[in-house]
Fold this sequence. Notes:
The chain has 250 residues and is of the alpha/beta class. Helix content is 37%, strand content 13%.
Amino acid sequence: MKIAISQPGYLPWAGFFDLIDQVDQFLLLDDAQFVKQSWDQRNRIKSSTGLQWLTVPVVFRGRLGQPLCEVEIREPQFWQKHLRSIEVNYGKARYFESYFPQLKEILERYGPGEKLIDLNLALIQWLAGELAVKTPMVRASTLGVEGKRSGRLVSMCKLVGATDYLSPRSAIYLLDDLAMFAEAGVKVWFQNYTHPEYEQRFPPFLPYASVLDLLFNKGPESGEILRSGRGQPFTPVQVRATSAECEASI
């Protein structure tokens, strides 16, 4: 049983869905502490001038430290600006009409008082379906597991019977806590993903936009293209060596 755990952001990039696609169960870390101006509430699309941010306005003042699952959307019809920006930049993309209506229908459901997490999850479920990513997803908040950082991850692994944990490459703090996973009988791996290039509007190609960019440009080929960036997962030893090389070059 291989699992991955990650926060469900707004209109995530291709690598997020590759992570989900590699495991038997994916835990959505929906009760992690919300960080303002993070991927939780924003992402980027490709425009004629580069990568452009789309940000969901949320209620933040007076709610420092709130969990992601409690964050509320602040402004009515915020999505009008998002949809307009998407239409301006992708309206002439080959597969724009195949996906824009459903995207619009989802976004229009959400306004002030609605939860950001519900919007994010609705979009993630839709995007996963279009990419043929079929891994079951579970909200971490439903598991009743307490703890912090690695300790909580280990507890969730044990609860669902995981033998292998696939981590996002950026979570190198796990290297200090490998003994906790080993004691629980869980092997730790790190995602190895190189963003694939494809025909994109407004050359040259720019990676790390929302996966919407891939869908609008490549349509039914998107799932295959997404998976083409996948490499054999890194071991902790490989990640440690790579991190040491990076530090030595600074």
